[in-house]
């Protein structure tokens, strides 16, 4: 199956991603082999509040990337929530006519039920698409929740999508993800209020901290999936960012940060799962903390102690 994945076989890719999701011990070797072959794709994170137009944008971006002869894999982390009434990515893509093209692979992953392991599973899905030879891998996540933000930060290029006319509350949620942007998109630029949103973001860019110690100027790109505008500009900005990372050598630090995050996330995942299997010991420790015989920290240390022995 690994051979088939590396050869870009669509069914093998789909199966391998399912294995990443299931996280069974017997599949670890296969996923390790996949990991060894990954590392060539340009991984791009698309994030933004619910309903900002991420999935629609992913669809038209996919088309634009295909025009340049490159292949694209898309992983959408679907919150499975009725938040925005946004269509699932697959439906959006069917509308763009991407279905049936072997140079595009689309996979939705549900957040529901992916207790703690969401970041691990979705980044392994990215590995699968990367190892399968896709030139660009897009990850769509809602920019709400630590897991989602971690996932999108595991991209080489982070695109934060803002739509015009969203309320103040939503803009506040967004504040947390604004600073991780390498590129800002103002979607739905066919709308009259888009110019004001773009101006707001440009204003904010001058103020807040960014993670760009180097001289990358974060661009603000207006796009309209509806009118087909700005999509070429966005692909150009993504390519320019990629080139900037390579030219300055910043790509190495970013790769290190991403791997560091993945190692820690996976450790958390392992520990959490193991503790779940050790409910009895945990219950006893909770009783002792309840009785204030020991503080929470000591209970945690004992739990880790028995974890190390097991
Ligand atoms: N006017 C206009 N509407 C758009 C555009 N792009 C998306 N929309 C609309 O915005 C709504 C949300 O679009 P989605 O692409 O589903 O947004 P999303 O960010 O993926 O949403 P979630 O995945 O639910 O967070 C839909 O009703 C789209 O039709 C655009 O370029 N112009
Ligand atoms: Mg979506």
List keywords for this structure.
7-stranded parallel sheet, alpha/beta, 2 domains, globular, 310 residues, Rossmann fold, binds guanosine-5'-triphosphate, binds magnesium ion, 54% helix
Short overview:
The protein has 310 residues and is α/β, with parallel strands linked by helices. The protein is 54% helix and 13% strand. It contains 13 helices and 7 strands.
Please give a structural write-up.
A seven-stranded parallel β-sheet has the order 3-2-4-1-5-6-7, sandwiched between helices. The protein is 54% helix and 13% strand. Strand 2 (72-78), helix 5 (89-96) and strand 3 (104-110) form a beta-alpha-beta unit. The longest helix is centred in the C-terminal third of the chain and has 27 residues, at 250-276. Helix 2 runs antiparallel to helix 6 (118-131) and helix 12 packs antiparallel against helix 13 (296-309). It is globular, with a radius of gyration of 21 Å. The protein has helices spanning 2-6, 10-22, 28-37, 54-67, 89-96, 118-131, 146-153, 168-178, 194-205, 231-248, 250-276, 279-290, 296-309; strands at residues 42-48, 72-78, 104-110, 136-142, 157-162, 183-186, 220-222. The chain folds into two domains: 2-248, P-loop containing nucleotide triphosphate hydrolases (Rossmann fold), CATH 3.40.50; 277-309, no CATH class. With 310 residues, it is of the alpha/beta class. It starts with a helix and ends with a helix. Bound molecules: guanosine-5'-triphosphate (GTP) and magnesium ion.
